[in-house]
Design goal:
It is a single chain. Helices cover 44% and strands 11% of the residues. It is of the alpha+beta class. The chain has one domain. It has a four-stranded antiparallel β-sheet with strand order 1-2-3-4. A hairpin with a 2-residue loop joins β1 and β2. α2 packs across α5. The model has no long low-confidence stretch (mean pLDDT 81).
């Protein structure tokens, strides 16, 4: 690690602030097995912000029925709130590859979300309650840099 810091210091102005523990919503834990990334606090804050804290957790992020589509006949949802939550879920997917597919699906409806889309998005939030402590292990610093970029 010190070699990387020294090499970067040759190229750019750099100051070593010691071990990283928390950075832009990502908790970092360094062990002998590797570096673990988690967004546990980010998940808790998101659940609180969306008033999902007290909801019952579920074990799958997306229901198989009904199929999500653009013109589903349901009333429109609050676009600002929907976009905010989907954006937060996109950021959360950095450490939660288990939600990438469903978040991508929801992003397709950001310009015109319906109540069905919003209900489905809240299902993902309830799913996150079951595994809020899930973290992602990386063996090398470059894995982390690639994950965050």
């Amino acid at each position: 690690m010190s070699d990387i810091i020294r090499q970067l210091g040759v190229q750019v102005s750099l100051k070593d602030l010691s071990d990283l523990h928390y950075f832009i919503g990502v908790e970092v834990q360094q062990t002998r097995e590797g570096i673990f990334l988690s967004q546990q606090k980010y998940i808790r804050d998101l659940l609180k912000r969306t008033n999902i804290e007290g909801a019952r957790p579920i074990h799958t992020p997306l229901s198989t029925k009904p199929t999500l589509q653009l013109n589903d006949g349901h009333p429109p949802a609050d676009q600002k709130q929907y976009r905010s939550v989907i954006g937060a879920l996109q950021y959360l997917a950095i450490t939660r590859p288990d939600i990438i597919f469903v978040v991508n699906k929801f992003a397709q409806f950001m310009h015109k979300p319906s109540q069905l889309h919003w209900i489905s998005a809240k299902r993902v939030l309830r799913y996150l309650k079951t595994g809020a402590s899930v973290s992602q292990r990386h063996n090398h610093l470059w894995d982390i840099i690639n994950a965050l970029c």
